[in-house]
Amino acid sequence: MVAGVGLSACGGGSDSPPVTPGPSGTDTPVDTGSTTPPVDTTPAQPQQLVTQLWSRHLQWVSTQAEAQAGSDPYGIGVKIGEALLACGYAAVDLTVRADGHVLPQNVKTHLPDMLKGIRSTGAICDHIGVNFTPLTDPLNTSWLVAENVEEVLAVAGANGIKRYRFNNAGGTAVPGTTGTLTLASFANNTFGDTMSALLDGVRVNHERLAALNAKYGNLCGVAHTHGSNIGTSVYDYDYAMRDIDPSLIAINLAISHTAGAALGGASNPAWELQMRRHMPRIKCTAVEDMKATVNASTGALSGTTIEPLPGTKGGGVINWDNFYGHLLRGGFSGAAESQIEYSIPDALGGTISLNTAFFSDNAAFTSGRLTPAMMTRTMKNASTFIRERAASAGWGKDGSNSSIL
Q1: Angle at alpha carbon of residue 205, lines to 201 and 211, rounded to 5°
Q2: Whole-structure pTM over 0.85, yes or no?
């Protein structure tokens, strides 16, 4: 007898197949279909967690005009890369949008050289952030034109970009009209099949993006869990991406956004269930913590992002050991990106939110409220926190087949 085969909880030591009573009381062998599946002996690929910063938080290295309309995108890229490394990150997610480092209409002239400048410093830049807004109307392709989608992807794919984050924000002007595009969203008082039909429309537009991604070098577009009520849950995104190759269309899990939409109990909060259920679709993460506040008058619960400090476990609602542990055990390889949305003390005795884009000629800097040293210190704290909590969860340990950049 082969070890472990032929014995059952009901006893019996025979290797003969199990039987069931036949129609006349005879015993009929059951076809178990128990062919032993082949053992996969392919070595597991090493996993890598990349510390990455959204370049909106580095726009202070130049003026807006220097970045968007200047004649030296390479030089701006060098400044971005140097500041990024000083902040302790390995990689930068470069803004390619109306209020970003590269304007979509300038992508041909500015993006290649800015990428070269960033990479010349030793910094990694293989992600960009865009404002593409796939709509719920399957027949409406105006967003592809309004946001210069094909040209952006063509240039990105030809210059070493592997992933781009979309659904960051709406408001893009529609050419030839006075209207703007808004992120796909469920209207109030819509239920069931009506909501599913909207997601079916989004899926058609996701297919259009996937086709362009394949055309321009197998880019992967990751939808940001943010910006509309469709984007607060990975479940709706996953439905709107069904049967689409996750190497072409996937999810950027912004944990504070999904957790804020589903604050839960200690054992199985909703964000953990979402994360575990949809891990094959999660190719990037945004790693901000948050705290919950109860309104003393109404009892309403709300959440605000908080600064993670090295040497602590965060102090918010996210259990970071579980978060990074799920990523490690689930086979994740990709970015743990800081998208800084909290406030810090300013230099003049007040507080200032970092949830905005500050160029060096912004009043926040010219007034003295912020300095480059303050920005660098804050982001260094954030990158150190990522490394500490990931290491605590097992990333980079001997035998884990993983590393942290």
Answers
A1: 145
A2: no
